[in-house]
Amino acid sequence: MEQKINMEHTPSPLNGWMKDALGILLLFTFVILFFSMDLFKDGGLFTLPSSWLNVNTIFLGIVIEAVPFILLGVFISALIQVYVSEDTIQRYVPKKAYAALLPAAMLGAIFPICECAIIPVVRRLIKKGMPLHVGVVFLVAAPILNPVVAASTYFAFRNDLTVFYTRFGLAFVLSIIIGAILYTIFKNSDQLKVQKDELLGNGMAAAATPSPKPQSSGIKRTVYHAADEFFLMGKFLIAGAFIAAMFQTFLDRSLLLAIGSSDWASTGVMMAFAFVLSLCSEADAFVAASFGSMFTTGSIAAFLVYGPMLDLKNTIMLFAFFKTKFVLIFMSVVTVTVFTSIMILQLFIL
Asked: Are 340 and 271 in contact (CB under 8 A)?
């Protein structure tokens, strides 16, 4: 009987093969679309409206831009899974909840992780025992405060560093405030969704399997976890990229530009742009700089703070891996705190 139970919990080789085959099929489809655009242009085998060609171009651009960072994120996540123990995390995280917020924000300034890669890292840290509110601070701070984003923002706004200082000062303060609010609401309750492989008991099977030599075992397990997580995250990235491409193509921007004539409206419009465009935080400063002549300094700062904290493609990932109530409250808290802080800054400083 014991042997039968263990066999039921052992991952099926067929399931693993099917997952890899699906990933290969998606990659193959992606490559075909990338190299066969001439088939859909005038004179080609098929003719599509230019708007749909634009959807395809934007979709491919988002995916190509995001995939390297997703790979970075899943490998960091895999390294955490293999080499970082729950005891290590609990040892270094301050015991007092509010005292842990500041170190978490400072940690975000060290790691060069953009918003494309942050969700698998935070998810893994929480599964390893990091408190939820500390993970939230890292989730919203790291994509903005990291050194790569700092450099790109500096070069994009080097002629007037007001936006540069506003972006990073606001991101640091707001990440702590957001973490504190969410701790007040959720405390340390578990807000992660249980994935299908966890329901099948893969973790129990892995624990029962004798481990090989430590060095080879660590490398093999790292690669396995990274591949598994990449396929898991990749499907949500593709879905989010496609929806973002649809919004970018068919959204009437002239209407939004007309609405954005006041401080209040322009801030809301730029936050909506940031959410829909789903730009990588390491490149969004150059896009924001192009809006400088049309929007206020405060609304540009709102674009640069809100987008890395919350955008369309990451929202889909959040709903996939966190409980719905948590995601809705997280989105509301981030939106309200960013908008309110920008309004206050525009009223008294900017």
From this structure: no
Q: Contacts from 109-112 at CB under 8 Å and sequence distance 24+?
A: 109/141, 109/142, 109/145, 109/146, 109/147, 109/172, 110/146, 111/142, 111/146, 112/146, 112/147, 112/148
Provide mean pLDDT across the span 235-260. 71
**Count of Cβ atoms closer than 10 Å to residue 165 Cβ:** 12
Look at 218 and 27; give whichever has higher pLDDT: 218
Q: Which two tokens stand for residue 91?
A: 């040892």
> Which residue, 139, 125, 36, 30, is CA-closest to 84?
125
- Residues 185/329, Cβ–Cβ less than 8 Å: yes
As a whole number of angstroms, the longest Cα–Cα distance in the chain is: 73
How far CA 173 is from CA of 124, 132, 228, 271, in Å, comes to: 25, 18, 35, 18
Region class of 43: left (phi > 0), else alpha (psi between -120 and 50), else beta: left
DSSP class of residue 93? S
- Mean pLDDT value across the chain: 77
Distance CA 267, CA 251 (A): 18
Buried b (16+ CB within 10 A) or exposed e, 175-200: bbebbbbbbeebeeeebebeeeeeeb
Residue located via tokens 């899974």: 81
Residue 99 near residue 180 (C-beta atoms within 8 A): no
Asked if residue 6 lies in contact with residue 205, where contact means CB atoms within 8 angstroms, the answer is yes
